[in-house]
Design a protein that fits this description.
heterodimer; A: 1023 residues; mainly beta; 22-stranded antiparallel barrel; 57 strands; 7% helix; 50% strand; globular; B: 518 residues; mainly alpha; Serine Threonine Protein Phosphatase 5, Tetratricopeptide repeat; two-stranded antiparallel ribbon; two-stranded antiparallel sheet; 39% helix
């Protein structure tokens, strides 16, 4: 800490130099494309060492006034072109300079947001990837996560399922933590945001409720101006204790100044499930039961007795088809931008309404954004304002993340008797068919979808206000205040009529959840060039933030009528004790960073961050996180042979970052009134207070150190560019919930135990194979391979995880965390086959581990490692072709070598479902397993899940509207398809799934919401 | 503006200039709002009562409480309860049949679930008692001695359950969380005995109705009587070869039974079933119960465990059944056989006949063809605790009986028999039997088998069977082999009269030494 306290100010103070006042001139000219000599719009021109710059007009022309006389270096950059730095001798009056830019393979922003400032791409020394929002904003995207898929090497993103606005599991260079979060830090316009759910969790209908939707749904993807992912610790060290899982920096679009521009974008999309659960239809099921009864009649030890005929109905219902639908999505964006040189603004409105491909589910967003900037005092004082406010309405479906013998919609799609109809009509009217009155554990899935009301509404406002003042030339002070406030309301009603609500005679819940985050940053930056060859940027930051979560939950049961639902809790005669809680936490950080560049050849970055967080133990609240990295631009050296390689750069970085994800108060002993502390004395419940955790005063940050070595290269004058990286990261002091010696108030405690290592290589390549006036073709490849290993777990032999879902699967786990093995290791009996009696057999190992035959009752010795949920490698391929007015883009991505546990098949492709007159998946018909066999977790259900997916293909046509009504200047129409093709050997719905079933669990497929195949048609008009 | 805000303002100013931050800018002290530190709590009787409630809470039927873990370990490992795999249902990683076939180990599914759960819930109760006892050393409340006695007795009861399952465990009376070595089983016996003897003096003989369920002197005496009855087991040592018995304490068992019988507080309920209904807090017979209430999270859920899916609302689990040989051991005229459901079934709320899931009338059979693939309707069900007419969901208000006067008759009878007083034993057994038969069917002779059988008739479903079978040397016997259909039968290794220390506990506490044989 003292380092930051004293060194940074000293450094800053020592380097301050007064700039002499001088005469000024104007630079004017045109920037053109080298391939077709056309003028280029939107090119950024900037005088180095000062905050003076402009942008070219649509014809490529520019004027830059107020430039101090003398020799200046002007940097000219545009996305998709090689940057140029040109020396200009400025004298009073107009100095004409024309610049020619060469197209480049990579379509990347030349200036990159790296956290608490920006850097030129060439000067970046850490591992930093960017995504072009322009090329990534295709198809139906409800949030920024979709823009990352397949486009960044080393970022693996698995959306949980096909639900609209679904949450995602995002791993930047793999999982490093076991029980703390593995989610990256999101920073929007410089303000770190907490990824806390904005709405309370749902009500589980016979199992855990579905996973929450993404908290990033507040941000409209078309408002995103840039996305940067900081991958290695030398880069993320700037975020210190919050950087262990990578950092996603999002900058929203800003006003451009100049004349007002209005843009309108709209699309409409239709979606249908790419694949549905393949269950027997009514006729097939009827036939199956009749065959089994016939079998039983000839051999009473087999088949089903004739009583099962009684459950057969007259109908032929495809429950998957009955629950699914063709869903429509509408999206409208209106934005306008403009202002003057001094004051710029951009405002936008978004409306998105996305239906889910399952009944009664969807997502709707109304969002407004305002971004404004103002310069004063001859551009020495700059203000910036960004405000996003949104209302997200979620219509939730009652399905299941996991579950037992009851279930939600998709479980009942799998098991509900297909010989029964969706509705029945009799003298009392038409109603949903159910197998009996009152509460039932097997329920009509259409009725569940239609009857259960589950809504979430989140109002969230995210805003920041910044002011920057140039104290002296090259020295800027900045203050940034950010607020993130969300109010989420979850409303649930399980009607009396529903078999899920009958138990309580109607159950209604309302839960309010308020999250408030406030952040204050003060920053001092210094940027100097000296001796003509030295560049130095130094930044010092103080950051303070506070987060508060408040929740209030009320519930009523036993309703007289279903009419009022959750809107009138007083209509229920049983009031459940309301619950509320509040947590607060606080972060304080001191940050220093210095970037040094020498002759555009050598670059060095040093970062130090001192972080304090309230949730840790009294003596462990503070920790220091350093990062250092350097790069050497070999291609600038005289010995560099040139030839094929036009550019080459070597980067090396090292850093230490932390994972702070522990709940507040974890180090304190405290008493609270909990449900399991209540007791009954006499005839009255007595509120009990008990110690709610085993305090751990030694709790501290989980630390990840990382070494990164990379080679960046450009070939054939930038026609091909790429980087190859190798990294090793090791996480120690893992935050792990582990059993404690008893007696203790709780069985477990959060401790710092064990370590995990990740090693990997990443390759990204961009190519510009064709660049002609009427035809350009860009193509890119990302490749990442990673090995993960749990190095040690302290005293613990293993930890079990990966709960198995389904009837008869209580206490079954599918994964173990074992020292020496990777996270996501499947562990269970090895399936050997089915014997002549139809009984499942498994490899039988003796206590010494020797295979001694087979067994029908596998014991502890027979459990072995069955596979791993982490892919060996992942690839992404993208291609963009522009041919005259047409453009065509495609994105493929794939993952190879991973296994997925098909929990759906384990439980629902077992014929014994028929013993309870339940349906099952078609695969069971040809399965030799006997009808009385239970579903037993084994290697049979752990499947290879390599896949390759055509994520998106888009065809567009751009044209200028002839001077028709209004003054539309440009227009583009396009059609787009998402998830058109999936190549995989995996037998389930989709190999890309995530269910939350325990510590660091991954690769469990249980009745996921089907992933849609989507077709989109859209238009963009700019005035 | 508060001081914090002013300091913050100053920090902003100074921070922006990147000059030396001040103390207020670095304040990270936590002050929870919806929790309270122990040093600010237990300041009055109401707060102490809230602490006491939490010490009793692990007695309940919830998933992690003793009426799930300890109860199942005492019942499903015996011939009283079997949970057969019913098609897809109740396989649960082989858990239930592993318990019934006695093939558990420290890291098997039962080891990681029920055995670990029983360890944690009992020790959790001990830890809660220790936290409150620790606080009581620093404050004064009106009936301090009685509350301290109550806490020590409750802690003693949790230790009694641990001793029964695991043998000797670590004896802890402070609040520090740290690895500690196990005591021997005999040392633990002595500790519990000393605690209960010390506590009983300060415990009231009776309590007002509003305190029904709280510890009394009778409860302490009942635990002591049970300990003395099992003294040869509890003070013996268990090796891989089995039990080396300790000293018998039959006379002490008689004495403490007499203390209860002569206290004038308890009498046998007129109807056997009255001890188990939703209004059984009025039973004159019950000595120590786990209290339940018909409200969310506080009810007894035994109805769910036993009944078929269609027999109740909410839909029960159709799991727990009993063995044909157990059911058939009961005399048809014995009212105590009415705890079983067998034959054609009705919905217990509506009284209407019910069907199984396939739609045919539900008829519970006495036998289970194959425990690995039983049918929905196989096996008689134990419904000793009938549904509460005012149940709320799964929550029935029946109090679960740990000790009642009926068992005290049986304890005294068995101890008297072992002391050579067969006539006295017979008299007591027949006094108890008189309630079960109309007309009376008194026993003519008594021997150990008669006593064990009488305990089965009286106490089936009361979590006594494992302890009784071990004391009578029958725990490792084979159950009916026909039911198990030729599949792997129980191992019957002699060391299985103790449960293994679960693997997570061995990992967490390196000073623990595993029980012999495991």
């Amino acid at each position: 800490m003292s380092l930051v306290r004293y060194v940074v100010p000293a450094l800053l103070g020592g380097l301050v130099l007064w700039a002499p006042l001088a005469a000024q001139g104007t630079i004017a000219g045109q920037v053109t494309d080298a391939s077709n000599q056309q003028g280029l719009a939107g090119v950024l021109l900037r005088i180095e060492g000062m905050s003076l710059g402009t942008q070219t007009r649509p014809d490529g022309g520019f004027t830059l006034a107020g430039v101090p006389a003398g020799t200046q270096r002007m940097r000219v950059t545009r996305i998709g072109y090689a940057p140029v730095t040109q020396e200009v001798t400025v004298s009073a009056g107009i100095n004409t300079v024309n610049v020619v830019l060469q197209p480049q393979a990579s379509i990347l922003e030349p200036v990159v947001v790296t956290g608490y400032g920006t850097q030129r791409r060439e000067a970046i020394t850490g591992s930093v990837s960017t995504v072009s929002p322009v090329s990534a904003d295709v198809g139906v995207l409800s949030n920024v996560n979709g823009m990352l898929q397949g486009r960044v090497a080393g970022v693996q993103l698995t959306t949980n399922n096909g639900e609209p606005g679904a949450g995602a599991q995002i791993r930047v260079r793999g999982a490093t933590s076991i029980s703390a979060s593995n989610e990256p830090l999101y920073v929007i316009d410089g303000v770190p945001i907490t990824n806390t759910e904005a709405e309370a969790a749902g009500f589980g209908i016979g199992g855990a409720p579905p996973l929450p939707r993404s908290p990033l749904n507040l941000l409209n993807p078309s408002d995103i101006g840039s996305i940067t992912i900081l991958k290695d610790a030398s880069a993320t060290a700037i975020y210190g204790s919050r950087g262990a899982n990578g950092v996603v920096l999002i900058e929203t679009k800003k006003g451009t100044g100049g004349g007002a521009t209005v843009a309108y974008e709209s699309y409409v999309a239709t979606a249908s499930p790419a694949k549905s659960l393949d269950v027997l239809n009514g006729d097939e099921y009827r036939q199956f039961v009749q065959d089994q009864v016939a079998l039983h009649n000839s051999d009473p030890t087999q088949g089903l007795d004739s009583s099962y005929l009684a459950a057969l109905g007259p109908a032929n219902t495809d429950w998957a088809a009955a629950v699914n639908r063709t869903a429509v999505t509408n999206n409208h964006n209106l934005s306008f931008t403009g202002g003057s040189e001094a004051t710029r603004y951009r405002a936008s409105l978004n409306y998105m309404n996305q239906q889910g491909v399952a009944l009664s589910s969807g997502f709707r967003r109304i969002q407004g954004r305002l971004s404004a900037s103002h310069q004063a005092l001859n551009n020495r004082l700059r203000f910036g304002l960004n405000v996003t406010t949104s209302q997200v309405d979620n219509d939730y479906l009652a399905y299941e993340n996991d579950g037992g013998f009851e279930g939600g919609v998709f479980q009942n799609v799998a098991v509900f008797n297909p010989t029964q109809p969706v509705t029945v009509t009799d003298s009392t009217g038409t109603r949903f068919y159910e197998i009996g009155p009152g509460r039932q554990s097997v329920r009509n899935p259409v009725a569940l979808a239609e009857q259960i009301q589950d809504f979430g509404t989140t109002d969230r406002t995210l805003g920041n206000l910044s002011a920057e003042y140039d104290l002296l030339t090259g020295i800027t002070a900045q203050i940034n205040v950010g607020v993130d406030k969300s109010g989420g309301l979850r409303q649930i009603y399980l009607p009396r009529l529903s078999p899920a609500g009958a138990e309580w005679n109607g159950l209604a819940q309302q839960v309010n959840r308020d999250n408030t985050s406030k952040t204050l940053q003060t920053m001092l930056t210094l940027s100097r060039q000296f001796g003509g060859v030295h560049n130095l940027d130094v930044v010092g930051v103080y950051e303070f933030s506070e987060h508060r979560i408040e929740e209030f939950r009320a519930e009523a049961r036993n309703f007289v009528t279903d009419a009022t639902g959750f809107n009138s809790l007083s209509a229920g005669s049983v009031q459940v004790t309301p619950q509320s809680f509040r947590t607060d936490e606080r972060w304080i950080s001191f940050i220093g960073r210095a970037n040094y560049g020498h002759k555009e050849r050598y670059f060095l970055t040093g970062i130090i961050r001192r972080d304090g967080r309230s949730a840790f133990g009294a003596d462990h609240k503070w920790a220091t996180f350093p990062g250092v990295s350097g790069s050497w631009r070999l291609s600038e050296e005289t010995f560099f042979p040139g030839g094929t390689f036009s550019d080459m750069r070597l980067r090396i970085g090292y850093g230490v970052v932390g994972n702070p994800a522990v709940p507040p108060y974890s180090s304190l002993i405290a008493l609270a009134a909990t449900g399991d502390a209540k007791y009954v004395f006499g005839n009255a419940p007595v509120i009990g207070f008990r110690p709610v955790r085993n305090p751990n005063p030694n709790l501290k940050f989980e630390r990840t150190s990382q070494v990164d070595v990379a080679l960046d290269f450009g070939m054939w004058g930038g026609r091909v560019s790429g980087s190859l990286e190798y990294y090793v990261k090791k996480t120690t002091d893992l935050l792990l919930v582990v059993p404690v010696p008893q007696p203790a108030p709780e069985p477990n405690r959060l401790e710092n135990v064990g370590s995990v290592r990740n090693r990997g290589i990443e390759l990204s390549l961009d190519a510009l194979p064709i660049s002609r006036p009427d035809l350009t073709w860009r193509a890119g490849l990302t490749f990442a391979a990673e090995k993960n290993k749990v190095l040690e777990l302290g005293p613990y032999t293993f930890l079990t995880t990966g709960r198995v879902s389904g009837q008869g699967q209580s206490n079954q786990v599918s994964q173990r965390i074992i020292p020496g093995e990777p996270l996501g290791t499947f562990f269970g009996p090895e399936f050997a086959g089915v014997n002549a009696q139809g009984v499942q057999t498994f490899n039988d190992y003796d206590a010494s581990g020797q295979l001694v035959g087979t067994t029908t009752t596998p014991g502890a010795d027979d459990h072995r490692i069955l596979g791993n949920a982490y892919p060996d490698f992942t690839i992404g391929l993208h291609s963009e072709v522009t041919w005259g007015k047409f453009d065509l883009s495609a994105l493929f991505r794939g993952a190879f070598g991973q296994e997925v546990f098909n929990n759906t098949a384990l439980v629902y492709s077992t014929k014994s479902n028929a013993l309870q007159s339940k349906n099952f998946l078609r695969d069971a018909l040809t399965d030799p397993t006997g009808i009385r066999e239970p579903a037993i977790y084994s290697s049979q259900w752990v499947e290879g899940a390599s896949f390759m997916r055509l994520q998106n293909i888009t065809v567009g046509y751009s044209f200028n509207l002839p001077g028709g009504p209004g003054s539309a200047r440009s227009a583009r129409v396009y059609v787009s398809g998402d998830n058109l093709l999936l190549l995989t050997g995996y037998s389930g719905l989709d190999p890309e799934v995530h269910s939350e079933v325990g510590l660091a669990s991954r690769g469990t497929d249980y009745l996921s919401y089907p992933r849609p195949r989507t077709f989109t048609a859209g238009v963009r008009l700019a005035f | 503006m508060t001081k914090t805000h002013r300091t913050l303002g100053l920090c902003t100013l100074l921070g922006s200039l990147a000059i030396f931050p001040m103390q207020g800018c670095t304040d990270l002290t936590e002050s929870p709002r919806s929790e309270i530190g122990p040093s600010n709590f237990y300041r009055n009787e109401a707060e102490v009562l809230a602490g006491l409630a939490s010490v009793y809470a692990p007695l309940q039927a919830g998933n992690f409480a003793t009426l799930w873990s300890y109860y199942n370990l005492s019942e499903v490992t015996t011939d009283e309860i079997i949970v057969p795999t019913r098609g897809q249902d109740w396989y649960d990683a082989g858990l239930w049949l592993e318990m019934h076939r006695q093939t558990w180990s420290a890291s098997s599914v039962a080891g990681l679930d029920f055995i670990n759960g029983a360890w944690n819930s009992c020790f959790g109760g001990i830890a809660r008692a220790n936290v409150l006892l620790d606080a009581l050393t620093r404050l004064t409340i009106p009936n301090q001695a009685a509350v301290q006695a109550e806490l020590r007795a409750m802690r003693g009861f949790y230790y009694y359950l641990l001793m029964d399952m695991f043998g000797g465990v670590q004896i802890v009376t402070d609040i520090e969380i740290k690895p500690r070595a196990r005591s021997t089983r005999a040392e633990l016996f002595d500790f519990i005995e000393a605690e209960l003897l010390a506590a009983r003096v300060d415990l009231p003989l009776t309590r007002p109705a509003t305190e029904n369920g709280r510890f009394t002197r009778g409860a302490a005496d009942a635990i002591l009587a049970s300990m003395y009855l099992n003294a040869q087991v509890f003070t013996g040592t268990v090796t891989a070869a089995g039990l080396q018995p300790g000293t018998a304490r039959w006379q002490d068992a008689v004495n403490f039974s007499d203390s209860i019988l002569n206290s004038g507080v308890y009498s046998l309920a007129a109807n056997f079933g009255d001890n188990f209904t939703a209004t059984n807090d009025n039973s004159p017979e019950n000595i120590f119960v786990a209290k339940h209430h018909n409200s969310a999270g506080l009810g007894l859920n035994f109805v769910q465990r036993a009944l078929h899916y269609n027999q109740f609302n909410p839909s029960p689990w159709n799991g727990f059944a009993t063995l044909a040989e157990t059911y058939n051991a009961f005399d048809a005229a014995d009212v105590r056989r009415q705890i079983f459901l067998i034959g054609p079934q009705v919905n217990l709320e509506t009284g209407q006949p019910v069907t199984d899931r396939a739609g045919v009338p539900l008829v519970f059979t006495d036998t289970i063809g194959d425990a690995n693939s039983a049918r929905e309707n196989e096996g008689p069900r134990i419904l000793k605790y009938p549904p509460d007419p005012n149940h709320v969901g799964e929550n029935n208000g029946n109090d679960y009986v740990h000790f009642r006067l009926g068992e005290i008759y049986l304890i005294k009878a068995e101890a008297q028999f072992e002391l050579g007083n067969a006539a006295g034993a017979l008299l007591l057994l027949n006094q108890l039997r008189a309630r079960a038969f109309e007309p009376d069917q008194p026993l003519a002779t008594v021997d150990r088998d008669v006593i064990l059988r009488e305990r089965l008739f009286e106490l089936t479903g009361e979590a006594k069977r494992r302890q009784d079978l071990i004391r009578h040397g029958r725990f490792l016997n084979q159950w009916s082999t026909t039911m198990l259909n030729g599949k792997v039968d129980k191992n019957g290794e002699p060391y299985r009269i103790l449960m293994p220390i679960p693997q997570p506990q061995l990992d967490a506490n390196p000073l623990l030494v595993q029980n012999a044989g495991y």
